[in-house]
Amino acid sequence: MAKITLNDKAVRRAAPPSGQIELWDNVLPGFGLRIAAGGARTYFVMKRLDGKLVRRSVGRCPPPHVMRDAPLPEGEFWPHEARDQARRMLSDLARGIDPAAVKRAAQAAAIKVENDTFKAVADAYLADKLEGGGANLRSRGELERKLKTDLKAWHDRPIVEIRGRDIRELVREKAQESPIAANRLLSFIKRVFRWAASQDYIDADPAASIQKPGQEQTRKRFLDEAEIRLFWRACDALGDPAGRLFKLALLTGQRRGEVAGMRRSEIGKLEYKAADPTTGKEKTVSGEAWLIPAARTKRKTDPTVPRSPLAKALIDGAPKLEISGKRLDCILASGARGDQPITGWSKFKARLDELIGREIAKDADEEYDPERHALPAWHIHDLRATTATFLETRLEVPTRVVSRILNHAEG
């Protein structure tokens, strides 16, 4: 796999006599140029999306005879322009957004939106990359599923004919099966109609005053000290990399996907000013920090997460895997998927629950029974609540500081 800097000279190299060659850019990983025997030159990006390695076209490279300053037709780019476009596409893929799907939705919306049917307008909303649009939502894939299944009956209906009563009846019917799912469906419907009103597809928003049909309660579950001990011992039994991942989720208080994607290149030094507890004078303190890039966080910010001594020991002690002599940057990788984080949360959680149950049975000197030997229902997200609870109640860390550690909006 040839790696070079894709510049004006590199992209003008001669085409192969047969087949095709691929040149990979050493400036932007995942960006390359394919040159076919017939002379066609196409920029592309490659990255994993939902665990699958995908290739997406960025655009065409102008033929070698085209002068550098000549205007290019739509879809053709000079190398630096293509790299900028590729950088945006790789960022989208890292956030779970498929540029090809966005493009298809935009094309479909551009053709069908003239009919002003509900589906045409919803497709246009999901393709809109501007503020208020749905193209950049992390939940975009789930919203597309709702549009395809839950809202199928509305696909061909003119959006102006859908009234508040229609919306209320639809979500109430959904609520008979699942109140929470009905709430999520209503939330999507509200998004579409709010956007449609802002784009003048409708004169008024019929969904604005409709209330959620299901009652939701904020979860307040966190693990107590005894449960944490059981959890920790079960993580030891679970082993690498999943056991280490669960431990780090508890120690750092970060979201599971952010912890799973932790990379060695994200670990660095942190220096800050603090008062000396003895003299009261200000001094510079240095420590270890985990610098999470904005592209990998829910809030699209780049938080600095301090590393406690125990977290540091777990990170530094992670197996240092190599592929073809190159060390993997992803700390919690198995190697089976290359330099990528592990997947399969439900499988690991089920195994962890079993191991916790076995620890409970062991402490009680009883034969393991999955029904009797189990923690009260808990979710992986409850580890964040556990971190926050102990920071506030045991260490008396101010709530605002805890919010910043957890990367909450109010922090």
Description:
There is one protein chain. 40% of the residues lie in helices and 14% in strands. By secondary structure, it is an alpha+beta fold. Strands 1-2-3-4-5 form a 5-stranded mixed β-sheet, with helices on one face. Helix 6 runs antiparallel to helix 7 (179-198) and helix 9 (242-252) packs across helix 13 (382-393). The radius of gyration is 26 Å and the shape is globular. The model has no long low-confidence stretch (mean pLDDT 87).
Could you give a short account of the major beta sheet? 5 strands, mixed
Low-confidence stretches: none
Mean pLDDT: 87
Q: How many beta-strand runs?
A: 10
Gyration radius, rounded: 26 Å
Structural class: alpha+beta
**Helix count?**
14
What is the H/E order?
A: EHEEEEHHHHHHHHHEEEHEEHHH
N-to-C span: 45 Å
What labels describe this entry?
411 residues; alpha+beta; five-stranded mixed beta sheet; three-stranded antiparallel beta sheet; 14% strand; globular
Which secondary structure elements does this structure contain, and how are they paired or packed?
Blueprint: E1 2-4, H1 8-11, E2 20-25, E3 31-36, E4 41-49, E5 52-60, H2 79-94, H3 99-112, H4 118-127, H5 140-148, H6 164-177, H7 179-198, H8 225-238, H9 242-252, H10 256-260, E6 267-275, E7 282-291, E8 304-306, H11 309-316, E9 322-323, E10 326-327, H12 345-363, H13 382-393, H14 399-405
Parallel strand pairs: 1-2
Antiparallel strand pairs: 2-3, 3-4, 4-5, 6-7, 7-8, 9-10
